[in-house]
Each structure stands twice: as structure tokens, then as C-alpha cells.
């Protein structure tokens, strides 16, 4: 099946549901590792394929560089997700997610910050790039 914007939208809905379920049950104020484990469980419950703590491959010109960069989740080989449990998302975390998306050729990325009262309105930022722009509707 071809990847379409509609498929990305449906997948985003499932991922958002998983994050909201975790936040609804746990609330803010816990360690990121707790949210990470519970989020992975919710993704499994929804039948989604994902890699957790995936090492990011870096290709620079003709070089393949081994790095210690890891993204929290790479879901269905399409959406990059980073989890946080902090006061606010600093610009460097946004830049890191955008770089991960580029390196993974991921059309969409989401940062969830679980240290908020309302995850849906305050605790999520979504990003798209050129890989998304060129998808069919």
C-alpha cells in the first residue's frame, strides 16, 4: 500500500490516542522512562509496529557514520516520536526531532511533553517536512 497523507493522518490519530491514554491514567510529574514504557504498551495494544530507542543512522556523503543518537520511537517506519517530561520544550529538542525526521526520511514527527495538565492542547507539537509535502492526498 502506498503511503498517503490520509494514512499518516489515521496513524497520527492512533498515536495521539495512545499518548492521551497514558497521560489520562498517569497525569503529569513522573519520569520520562515511566511514560516511555506505558506509551510502548499502548502502541502494542493498538497493533502498531515501532522501534523504541532506535539508533539513528547517519549517512554523510559516501560515509556511514555510527552515532549515539537515538529517537524514542519510530512508528510504522513513518512517524518519529520524542517523549519529554519537562516544564517546556526547548528549541533544541524541536531541532533534534526535525533532524531525526530528515535522517530517517520520516514525513511526520511529534513531541509529547507529559508534564502538562492537558496533553492534547499543551503537550504536543507536530512537525511535517518535504517527505510529507510530496505524499499523495
From TrEMBL:
It comes from the Bacteria. Pfam families: PDDEXK_3. This is GxxExxY protein. It comes from Shivajiella indica.
